Amino acid sequence: MGNVGLLYVGAVLFINGLMLIGVIPGKSAAILNFFVGGMQVVFPTIILIQADNDPGIILGAAGLYLFGFTYLYVGILQLTGLSGEGLGWFSLFVSVCAVVIGFIQLTLDDPVFAVIWWIWAVLWFLFFLLLGLNMDSLTLTTGWFTILISHLTGTIPAFVLLLGRYESNTTLALTLAALGVLALAIAVTIGRRSSAAAESEASTTAPIAT
């Protein structure tokens, strides 16, 4: 179940990234957030019922709830028009949890998913800065980073897991980490260039005082 959920994490992150850069309206993106958020709450509940107190299974289910509540929160905000500060501070909580879960993955000899969790920690920290601290200048940076890592940390690993070909070693983890850093660098560059272009356009179209 977790592997299927991961596949749709890639999908909803991609849609939310497109929403942040202005390609998809918020109310349109809200629908998929409700679908995936609901799934990410129902699935871990079923997993917990069947876990038989297995700590590893319970840990995995707890991580799914972090995503499920985020997407349901996003969907509600987009439909109601409420401010996003609450989601922003919840995103800080998710970011800290993701860092911890990443280290736990290392103790479980799974460095690839440790890196995936740390990339998610960076993304949710950007959500915190954008929504919790109202740093609107990071909107495009956050949107592009969301798009770039959606398939890197969601869709592709999910398909590999579903095909039964998942491997985890230091080389793959370092490669994934490098791709994550590259994605962040690209997102920051696009965000800064877009902001600079907007400021330049605003200055050239501003009325001349008389």
TrEMBL record:
Swiss-Prot/TrEMBL keywords: Cell membrane, Membrane, Transmembrane, Transmembrane helix, Transport
Transmembrane segments: 6-24, 31-51, 57-74, 86-106, 112-133, 145-166, 172-190
Principal subcellular localization: membrane
Pfam families, alphabetized: AmiS_UreI
Location within or outside the cell: Cell membrane
UniProt entry tagged with the keyword Transmembrane: yes
Keyword field contains Membrane: yes
GO CC annotation, single: plasma membrane
Residue ranges of coiled coil: none
InterPro entries from the UniProt entry: AmiSUreI_transpt, AmiSUreI_transpt_sf
UniProt topology in membrane: Multi-pass membrane protein
UniProt similarity note: Belongs to the AmiS/UreI family.
Protein name, entry field: AmiS/UreI family transporter
